[in-house]
Target: SDR family oxidoreductase
Amino acid sequence: MMSNAQAHSVCSNKNYWVLGASSGIGLQLATDLARLENHVIVSGRNATALEHLKKQYPNHVTVLVFDLQSEDDFLIVKKTLPELIDSLDGVIYCAGICEYVDDLHNNRALYRRVFAVNFFAAVDILELSIPLLKKSDTRGCFMGIGSLAAQAPFTRAQAYGASKAAFEYFMACQRIDLEPIGIDVCTVLPGFVKTPLTDKNDFKMPFLMSVDEASQIIIDGLAKRKKRIIFPKKLYWLLQIYRWWPQLWFGSVAKKMRRENDV
Model:
């Protein structure tokens, strides 16, 4: 991993837009990027949290409150963003929600809510960002937070896992198509990170990491222009083994994870 000095030299004095910046990984990334003396536009629904961050780094943070599920907000941001900044060196899409399927009924509304934020909003944000990323002095980078949950099927995670799998495939395709116009695409695949989102989980989370650890790994990968940032490696390789031998996953691990009231 790069030293703080190395990361500072590569990831400083740039323009970033961090979405989902009011909590969790997004908040920590926005904080660390501001510490590195970048200009960081922070977006999320929680205006209080965003304004608190701006008070900490008044010369480096600009607040752009934005509800990704609001069409009206999207139209406002589409007009406002180019007025706030001439170019972007990086856009980091950290927004995400998780809703578990707690019975055997596939609730369409639940799936639509999860996909609206985890997938479709990301598509819209990339479309909105491309003109500004193309104006970067170096190469613009669009980074998105996926999940290791998409590497294997988990009980109750139908909506969340499917949305993250779709997002990962979308990002891989965009990496091919945006490279010729000077935009890099990076997908982050974290395991369990302690955030307000994972605090709601009622099961044991192996290899649980702090947001500080996650942010440092992501910034290190951003500085190195990695195409995929995966952590923790132990969990990733464990899931890969189970993907290679699906009968082992379904025959032992998946069944043990299932709760009695799920059937």
Notes: The mean pLDDT is 88.
